[in-house]
Amino acid sequence: MAGRGTLIVILGFTIVFGLTAKYWTRVATSSVDNFVQYYNETTAHAIAVSAANLGSSQVFVDQPSGRSFNLSGGLSGGEYNVEVDSINPNLLLLTATGTYPPSGTFGTVTDTVRVQFGPNRFSTFGLYAGTMNSLSWDTGDTIWGGFHSEGTFNVEGTPVFYGRVTSNNDMTGGGTPIIYGSYQSGVSIPMPTSGVSNIRAVAAAGGGVINNPSNPAPFEVFMTFNSNATVTYHTNLNTADTTIPLSSLAPNGVIVINNGNLHVHGTVNGQVSVAASGSSSTGFGSVYIDGSIMCNSDPRTNPNSTDVIGIVAQNNVWVESDNAYLGVTPSNPPVNPVVEAAIYAQSGAFQCYYKSKPNYTNLGYIHVYGSITNNYLGVTSDPTSVYGYKPDFRFDPRFSSIGPPSYPVTGTFVILSWYE
């Protein structure tokens, strides 16, 4: 009886261990399969990411051509393929795939990375200067947002820069700037001569164009933006006000004064770019800010504000009162004006009409919350800051990702989205 019991126990253990061994063998095999699958997936993903970086580098090398192209090859024991296509004249889509092991091999895995590129707007700079001329940044100066000089980077003392700093030529002046970002010389980002003509074409195609009816006679347009999304304007030739919805005057959000000057202030409800075009030899192509121009939803307190303003001039953007263009002494200079906009002066600068007017003191600050692009670095006061305005320029961080309608671009691309 004892021998039979022992035999039963032995048979029982044999069956149990046999079944268990089969189970653990299956578990071990599955573990190996899972590990191989995981390795293949992560390697394919790494190849796709590397391919996306290779393609992105090629996009930046080729800019501003915006051409479509393909790249392919072997990498890390697998394969990659990159396709870049033009979605429209302003957008590129890069599709990068990584395959591991190579096609035709058992267990092949393919992963995809998509990258969208868009034009780099000048509004992404906190401050841009085609040249600094003889001006220098000095102790007490604080620049918010990225800064670029297409000439030399003139520094004396210890100015502070909150953002990336680039210049075409080297740093001069012997200063020691404090840069909370990075500095790189040898970077050329020239201001194009077509920025205003491009925005004028957009306005003609679906925006609002106000033409000088008697060119080359003086033509001044006085425009007030209203918080209810309307615009009130008149000209020096027709002094009767016209009030019209912004969406009716400029369905695509772009308004251009052709062969004239624009005088503007008010509260913008929506997204708009206003521009003045014309030759400086005829006294045209400048924008005069004759009071605060602000967003209906203030981006200084609401970073999610969707109201956006662009101010574009073929020549200069001035801060002045509404009768300064007549050559008479302004009687009502704005005090502590606020400008919540991206400002672009293609051939001139953003500057103050009163900087050489000794009758006008204690005007306070010119508060700019947005972006400033000048052909040359302008000034807003005399060297002692007694006359004119003390500058208070702050970058609107929304302009890192969005910009005013059809705002001038640098001719280079930036990454808008990266999806893995």
List the keywords:
420 residues, alpha/beta, 7-stranded mixed β-sheet, 3 helices, 18% helix
Describe, in plain words, how this protein is organized in 3D.
With 420 residues, the protein is of the alpha/beta class. The protein folds into two domains: 1-119, no CATH class; 191-412, no CATH class. The chain contains three helices and 29 strands. It has helices at residues 2-62, 195-206, 246-249, and strands at residues 69-75, 78-88, 91-100, 109-121, 127-129, 142-144, 147-149, 153-154, 160-162, 165-167, 171-172, 178-179, 183-185, 208-211, 220-226, 230-235, 242-245, 254-258, 261-268, 271-277, 287-295, 308-313, 317-319, 338-339, 342-345, 350-352, 365-374, 390-395, 409-419. The longest helix has 61 residues, at 2-62. The N and C termini lie far apart (70 Å).
Share of residues in strands = 35-45%
Gross morphology is elongated
> Could you tell me the radius of gyration in angstroms?
31 Å
Distance between the termini: 70 Å
Structural domain count = 2
Q: How many β-strands, per DSSP?
A: 29
Q: Total helix count?
A: 3
Largest sheet, if any? 12 strands, parallel
Spans of at least 5 consecutive residues whose pLDDT stays below 50 are none
The pLDDT mean sits at: 88
Structural class: alpha/beta
Measured as a percent range, the helix fraction is 10-25%
